[in-house]
Amino acid sequence: MPNWHQGVLDMAESGGGKEATGTAPGAPEDLGAQSGTPDVFISYASQDAAAADAVVRSLERAGLKCWIAPRDVVPGALYADEIVRAINEAKVVVLVLSEQAVASPHVGKEIERASSKRRRILALRTDSAALTRAFEYFLSESQWIDVGSGGIEATGAKLVDAVRRHLAPGADVAPAVPSDPRTLARNSATPQPRWILIASVAVLATALVYFVVERFWLSKHATSERPIAAVTPAAAPATPAISEKSVAVLPFVDMSQKKDQEYFSDGLCEELIDRLAHSPDLKVIARTSSFQFKGKNEDVRTIGQKLGVANLLEGSVRTSGRSLRVTAQLIKAADGSHLWSQTYDRNTGDIFKVQDSITEAVVTALRAAIAVPTSSVLNKPRNTDAYNAYLRGRYFENKNTKADFERALASYKEAIKLDSRYVDAWVATADVYNDQGLSGRISTKEAYTKAREAIDHALSIDPNSAAAYFRLAGIEENFRWDFEQGTAALKRATELDPAVETGDMAIWSAVLADRFDDGIALSRQRVQRDPLSAGRLEDLAIVLWWANQFPEAESTLRHLLELNSSFAGAHCELGEVLLFEHRADAALAIMSEEADQDGKWCVANALWALGRRTEADAVLAEAKAKYGDTQALGFAQSYARRGEKDEAFKWLNRAYDNREAALALMRQDQMLSNLRDDPRFAELVRKLKLPE
Predict the structure, then answer these.
(1) What CATH number has the domain bearing residue 135?
(2) From CA 110, how far away is CA 99, in angstroms rounded?
């Protein structure tokens, strides 16, 4: 299938409306953009671009004005707005009806929009794919024209005649959709052999771990080359009723005289969140969102509304030598009344008993008829100094900077030195190496070797550690692409602890299986659990982006940046969305604000789209010198977008040699879509041994 669709995108982005005519490489010279009100709107799936090309050619040679994306999208305008306007203005919609069109939610929305506006719909059927009920409903009174063995060019006269009849006076309004969708009128009753290429899509049914997508903005360039349907920003969902069995644990205040116990108070809160989260009937807000209110003096009613919970747990920690005082209180968010409060004066060696007491008291106060399991004795250190070191490691790791990761690793090693059988410290050590490898701060070989060594230590101490098996699944899939062992480890983790957080993997499993609606729904659920988490908002934005719901992806990323303007990769991701909305100037502006210096070279893509090729090449050359050993996939994506296939495959193979985790997504990565028909692409997929 000719890939002139990308050529149109590049010209629309680079030249502006005056110089870019819309003629793409391989397209006919007279296939220029039409001005004025269109006669015909062309609806098609991206795989049918060649067929849509032929339809436009036939109609425009007959003097009929067509509107087709992306050719006729006004540079700088919102893609979705342009499509809605074109459908509203056109009198006839010609649908290239194929297996891909039936499967495309975007084509479905276009046809639904056309039907709601009572536009005539002419379906040009290119194969015998079964229709969904929705397509049967909206096409029930439509005329069908079957494409014969001669292709669309041979059917052109029949198509032109049908369009002209519907444009005749008195024929500009389509009849209402009948109640019986079986009354199908067809211009040709005999199905003919399909002539257009039907792409086969391999479904990846296994779960890729969260970090494959979370850590690399470069792996998320899953922008689409197909026309965008009449997508409008989703209306804000109705605010769900707040359950009385919902709680957020706010950061405990460090009341120590020296104010040097913040790591301890934060760690206590994290432990409480983790223990409460094991209660299946209790909604517990994740740490990321609840810690947004650290050091702030907001009204409890406001906090409850922002987090969507009925109850708040807050308190303070004071230490002096070996003495410990913990004060905790449970507050009803609606009116600020106290449901329960308690002060614990203990020796620091009794911290685990204090944690258990607070957890049980909270659950009792919320009247949740459940038992809260306590952690395995093996996961508790034998001395509080080791526990303190572990909490310091958690504190630094949550800061998510290179220097703090090093401090976290040193703290975990200190905890292990003090207590060599401290399972959680071994698992946390593996987690740091995993993060470091995915961020490119150390080689993937070093990351895997050291992370696997730490996990093996943890499992030798506690063969039933769910946390250890969960991390094992991650490092095997991230650095070895061993999906069989990764899946087995994940299964074992969930058997040992059904409360293990696997939401990220469920999301990406759905996306990788092209079940975007499921992926979006799961992402929304996770955002509800952690509404102020920039990471979870990023996940939602990416799934929306992959599903071509650009306006909502854009608004989600902007909300993310309102919460955390320095969130690594977010400016680049927003810029990529803007590029595929044909807003290259805006994309360059936002990409230039990227906080992550290691990823800031994304501006090269915007410069290229604007036609500033020399500048783009200079930025790319500088980036390759710095990041060629860790971000090879990103360079492959940029070259694939440019159409420079040999260079793209050179960098893809380097990404393979680097063992870059995100390469496992290559079959789903739309930035690599124009490489898929190349035999070198299939060969690389075979080398990766990706699941079928």
Answers:
(1) 3.40.50.10140
(2) 16
Classify burial at 169, counting beta carbons within 10 Å of its beta carbon; exposed 0-12, middle 13-18, buried 19 or more. exposed
> What is the reported pLDDT for 170?
58
Q: What is the CATH number of the domain that holds 666?
A: 1.25.40.10
The pair of structure tokens assigned to 608 is 């290229």
Question: Are 281 and 340 contained in the same domain?
Answer: yes
DSSP character for 124? E
Name residues of the chain where pLDDT drops below 70: 1-35, 76, 133-134, 136-143, 148-150, 153, 169-241, 280, 359, 362-382, 399-401, 499-503, 505, 690-692
Q: Residue 499's pLDDT is what?
A: 66
Q: What is the DSSP letter of 186?
A: E
- Per the CB < 8 A criterion, the answer to whether 545 and 578 are in contact is no
C-alpha separations of 619 from 603, 608, 616 in Å: 8, 10, 5
Q: What is the pLDDT of residue 27?
A: 34
Biggest alpha carbon–alpha carbon distance for the chain: 92
Residues 442 and 521 in one domain: no
Q: What is the pLDDT of residue 506?
A: 73
Q: Establish if 630 belongs to a structural domain.
A: yes
Provide the domain limits for residue 119: 4-186
Q: Which two tokens stand for residue 215?
A: 């850590």
pTM: 0.50
For 524-559, b/e burial (b = at least 16 CB within 10 A) is eebbebbbbbbbbbbbbbbbbbbbbbbbbbbebbee
Q: What is residue 365's predicted lDDT score, i.e. its pLDDT?
A: 65
Residue where one domain finishes, among candidates 464, 481, 507: 464
Residues 227 and 281 occupy one common structural domain:
no
Burial track 49-60 (b if 16+ CB lie within 10 A, e otherwise): bbbbbbbbbbbb
Residue 678 covered by a domain: yes
- Considering the domain architecture, whether residues 223 and 315 belong to the same structural domain is answered as no
Give domain status of residue 194, yes or no.
no
* Same domain (yes/no): 164, 263: no
For the CA atoms of 491, 495, 501, 507, what is the dihedral angle to 10 degrees?
40
Distance CA 433, CA 475 (A): 9
Q: Are residues 576 and 509 in the same domain?
A: yes
Encoded tokens for 33: 């953009």
The reply to whether 604 and 543 lie within a common domain is yes
Please tell me whether residues 22 and 96 are part of one structural domain. yes
DSSP codes joined into one string, 337-387:
-EEEEEEEEEEGGGHHHHHHHHHHHHHHHTT-----PPPPGGGS-SSHHHH
Orientation of helix 550-563 relative to helix 570-579, angle to 10°? 160
Whether 240 is in a domain gets the answer no
Structural domains counted in the chain: 3
